[in-house]
Amino acid sequence: MPGERHIRISIPEQRLWLLEGERCLREWPVSTARNGPGEQRDSGCTPRGRHVIRAMIGAGQPIGAVFVGRRPTGEICDEACFARQPERDWILTRILWLSGLEPGRNRFGTVDSMRRFIYIHGTPDAFPMGVPLSKGCIRMRNEAVVELFDRVSPGTLVTIRG
């Protein structure tokens, strides 16, 4: 609807825009899947199409809070923590859990984004933005994901273009 806040993500451009109607409120670099765009379970790809934010996790957690299974572990990822486990799939600070809106494309069966645990989430500063390196999720800088989290709500439309 005109004037509503929504998110647009471009896999080729590795960018995320927060929009109100067609007006850009903010934009950030992101990092999507190393394996490129795709919807299949276990593909390690970032799903395309229309989604909504189904759940928002991590309100009030500190910058760098580590999540496993969508629960804070009590750890804070800093340079030393990252250096001990550089290959870990770090999910930090905030989680915006996405649910697909297009049956057969990104919802239900083997293409269900929510069952694939596709998130917009924070990541260690050591990981570059603008380069596809994730295992399917959309990674953002921690400060950026906090700013985005504070400006959206469950039900916010998210369109991912490949």
From TrEMBL:
The active site is at H121 (proton donor/acceptor), C137 (nucleophile). Transmembrane segments: none annotated. One of its GO terms (molecular function) is transferase activity. Residues 5-161 form the L,D-TPase catalytic domain. Keywords: Cell shape, Cell wall biogenesis/degradation, Glycosyltransferase, Hydrolase, Peptidoglycan synthesis, Transferase. Pathway: Cell wall biogenesis; peptidoglycan biosynthesis. Its EC number is 2.-.-.-. It comes from the Bacteria. It is an enzyme of class 2 (transferase). Belongs to the YkuD family. This is L,D-transpeptidase. It comes from Natronospira bacteriovora. The lineage of its organism: Bacteria, Pseudomonadati, Pseudomonadota, Gammaproteobacteria, Natronospirales.
